[in-house]
Amino acid sequence: MKTPTILCLMGPTASGKTDIAVELVQRFPLDIISVDSAMIYRGMDIGTAKPDAATRAMAPHRLIDICDPAQSYSAGNFWQDAAREIADIIAQRRVPLLTGGTMLYFHALQNGIATLPKADPEIRARLKQEAEQQGWQHLHERLQALDPESALRIHPNDPQRLQRALEVYEITGITLSQLIAESPHTKLPYRFVNLALIPQDRALLHQKIAARFDLMLQNGFIAEVEQLYQRGDLTGEMPSMRAVGYRQIWDYLAGNLTQAEMHEQALAATRQLAKRQLTWLRSWQNLTCFSSEDAHKMAKIRDFVRDTFVSSPPL
Length: 315
What we know:
Blueprint: E1 5-10, H1 17-27, E2 30-34, H2 53-58, E3 61-62, H3 75-91, E4 95-99, H4 103-111, H5 121-134, H6 136-146, H7 148-153, H8 159-172, H9 176-182, E5 191-198, H10 202-218, H11 221-229, H12 246-253, H13 259-282, E6 287-291, H14 297-309
Parallel strand pairs: 1-4, 1-5, 2-3, 2-4, 5-6
Helix pairs in contact: 3-4, 5-6, 5-8, 6-8, 10-13, 11-12, 12-13
């Protein structure tokens, strides 16, 4: 039997992935699975650029609004949920279209989940105490010396992943990147066709990021975070509230930043996110790239999808 094919549409934030995915769904028997670590949370709509109700009615997205912001969600959770949704779509003789910008999730899905050691509460507590005394930047510099590959992909303002990378090294004596490379993986039995929207003009991407963030603010982003802030059961350390934009507005609401500082830091964090996403994509194998600035990109991607599947049912 022919190996089922999965279509993956990747790209940095604000590159136009959602518009392309919705257009493809209108023309081909594709079903969208979201690959976004923030869109999984309910009540986090504006700041995640979550497709609105009208768009989702036209092009349903799986794995959106599946968690409460108080819950944690890992790449392993995504692997399990995505594997289930992929199997369901294929059983209906349709093709899964995975789209989003959480590159770690794409990597886990296509390469499997490495076997990593269980968390060590004592090591975690000590690393957290050290961070409180000397700052997360200090721990990031240590990781950079020990494991440059992991440090390149983990931002100093991502304490959960930074702490985990250092913890893994202290437990095993092996860097996280080496352990992932050498560990046995659980791989899915599918053929992945990878497309990416890549900006050619970094300055233009930054302009789009700024314009989109300003539009989010106009649409009530601060009020959205304030509603989460007032729940009483969330903290700024939770993964949901560390999402880009949410973290900065949370600090603003807590009185730790002025509105101008919040705005500046949110834009800087979003630009850093885009940079990390592009770092992932530069090393991705078997990737077909399209310029996100090309006025004819939709037609080119549509033709590519048609040509790729022309001899393979159901397309």
